[in-house]
Design goal:
alpha/beta; 14 helices; globular
């Protein structure tokens, strides 16, 4: 049976679609059978993999409403993965599902007939916390949270984790949180490091390594209908996603060797002046920042970001840890 990963964050523009297509292509390179599911009415994943959503007659919309089986709608992509595509019609699917009993389980039930065909299923959730995202989380074994390393993206993590806890309690007790995936990362700024340090301490969540560096190559790839692993095979971004895919596929020895050959550190390292602890580990070629600079950034976050996952604000010190 396939291992199902949902990639979710209600904030847009944090590289959810890029992460799904890149991880899918990397897992496919490892010889894994991969299905990607586009749950976003904007259909960015569908477009990014070479299909025109405006001309598709069949989509995941028909599958969720029970009109067609998933096997009929699934299509092949140039990068080796299969895709359950989306169209703008998916925007009206939520309203229909709201009137149905068991609406949270529509995707899980739809995938049941094809789940044994694949090793991995990756779900691209929409930038919202509506019925479609809850369907993705209910169908998943784990959730990955892409995080653009800035304050506004940081604030949404707590809201998403609240939704994850509700899903664990009500519809999918087996759902796990794999961790936060730093995207659009610029290791030269103390702010990026301070955001990751604060997220780790505030929400007690793992930060996945290596971070995905900001690169124009990611913006160029969708125009070709391919992932960055095809358009810029040896770029740092492609190599980083390959490292993550190897860990996901549990080829841990290969992951370490590959990361080392790509110049990516595989040992825990410091984020600015703060060191991650416990299950939250960030690795990668991050530049050190003076203690006072990282301290100022973390203090700024303390003043601006006041919404933890649950309950009252959790104050954090200059080192990003709870006080």
């Amino acid at each position: 049976m396939a291992h199902v990963l949902a990639v979710a964050n209600q904030k847009g523009g944090v590289a959810k679609t890029t992460s799904v297509s890149s991880l899918g292509a990397a897992l496919s390179e490892l010889g894994r059978r991969v299905l990607l599911v586009d749950l976003d009415p904007q259909a960015c994943l569908t477009f990014s993999l070479g299909l025109d959503p405006d001309t598709l007659e069949l989509s995941v919309h028909d599958v969720l409403l029970g009109r067609l089986s998933a096997g009929i709608v699934i299509t092949k992509t140039s990068d080796g993965m299969d895709l359950l595509p989306a169209t703008i019609e998916l925007a009206g699917c939520e309203a229909v599902l709201l009137s149905r009993t068991g609406r949270e389980h529509a995707l899980r039930l739809a995938l049941a007939e094809v789940i044994d065909t694949y090793d991995f299923v990756l779900i691209d959730c929409p930038p919202s916390l509506g019925v479609l995202t809850i369907n993705g989380l209910t169908a998943a074994d784990e959730v990955i949270v892409p995080l653009q390393c800035e304050t506004l993206s940081h604030r949404g993590v707590g809201q998403l984790l609240d939704t994850v806890h509700d899903v664990q309690r009500l519809t999918n007790p087996g759902l796990g949180v794999r961790g936060v995936l730093p995207t659009l990362f610029d290791g030269r700024t103390a702010h990026c490091r301070a955001v990751l340090s604060d997220v780790s301490a505030r929400y007690d969540i793992a930060v996945l390594a290596p971070p995905i560096a900001r690169s124009v190559r990611f913006a160029e790839a969708p125009g070709t209908g391919r992932s960055i692993l095809s358009t810029a095979r040896r770029s740092k971004g492609a190599e980083a996603y390959r490292a993550h895919a190897r860990v996901i596929a549990e080829v841990r020895g290969e992951a370490a060797a590959h990361a080392g050959s790509a110049g990516i550190a595989v040992e825990p390292t410091r984020i600015g002046a703060a060191t991650t602890t416990g299950g939250s580990v960030v690795t990668g070629p991050l530049e050190e920042a003076p203690l006072e600079e990282a301290g100022r950034e973390a203090a700024t976050l303390e003043a601006v970001v006041r919404e933890p996952a649950r309950g009252e604000p959790v104050p954090v010190g200059a080192d990003g840890a709870r006080v």
